[in-house]
Amino acid sequence: MKPILTLTTAIAALSAAASAANVIVNGSFENSATPITPDTTSPAWGSIAAGSTLSNWSRKYITGTTGVALADGDFGTSQPPYVIGNGTTIPHRAATDGNTFLTLQAENTKVQLTQAISGLGAGTVDVSFDWINMLSSGVSQSPNNWLQVEVFDGNDASFPNIYDSAVVAVGSAPKVTWQNTTSSAFSNTGNDIFVRITINDGISGGQVAMDNLKVNWVAVPEPAAALLGGLGLLGLLRRRRG
Questions:
Q1: What does the pLDDT read at residue 105?
Q2: 209 and 226 within one domain
Q3: What is this structure's pTM?
């Protein structure tokens, strides 16, 4: 019985050695090709020019024809500081990762940003991202401004949806500081995963943004490889005892 317990421990140690890798490219939403000029005096929605060539993401407009923007820490309208519906003033908000975060500049705009990650193999996946929303005086937020993150077990959205953040940032109360949504681990069975972000800006005087998107993937060891690895570790343990 003792060798079996030792082998089990060895296999568990081998599995624990697998480390998670963030497979999303540019989850901090940076664009060095079209940088944003920082505006430290008058808050702005962001730069459409910078967002229009956002690296590593494909873009599809569901409503509207333009509006994807990158903001450098300014979040509001032309008045400094920005005042939301409950009278709270909003200071400049820096990105939580990198120099810029993703937002929409044009109202009545709904956009989907997608990214396919190939060559993974079966594994476990978890998702995390930061988000924020705010609104002007007298504006009802729900259900006009929201964002959503989905993961599909394949190379496009026709495959099974294995993760859905549901709609976040919906509600009458604004979130004036960065919030975080983190998923539990879930499984992918194929070689590819497909990530889709949906952002909706349905009103004037409100805004939603996100940053620091991570999709962490851990490979599931093949049974034979795990067994061989466990046997190898067991051999080392026996050699040490000898």
A1: 82
A2: no
A3: 0.80
- How many structural domains are present in the chain? 2
On the CB side of 59, CA atoms within 13 Å amount to: 20
- On the 0-12 / 13-18 / 19+ scale of CB atoms within 10 A, 166 is exposed
Tens of pLDDT, residues 153-183: 999 999 999 999 987 765 556 677 788 999 9
pLDDT in tens, 68-79: 988 877 654 444
Going by C-alpha positions, the residue among 68, 153, 143 that lies closest to residue 117 is: 153
3-state secondary structure of 4: helix
Are the C-beta atoms of residues 200 and 107 closer than 8 Å to each other?
A: no
What is the extent of the structural domain holding 175? 19-220
Please state, in angstroms and as integers, the Cα–Cα distance from residue 102 to each residue in 27, 95, 236, following that order: 10, 9, 50
- pLDDT value for 123: 96
Phi and psi of 107, rounded to 5°?
-75, 170
For residue 128, what is the enclosing H or E element?
strand 123-135
Residue 93 sits in the same domain as residue 51: yes
Mean pLDDT of the chain: 78
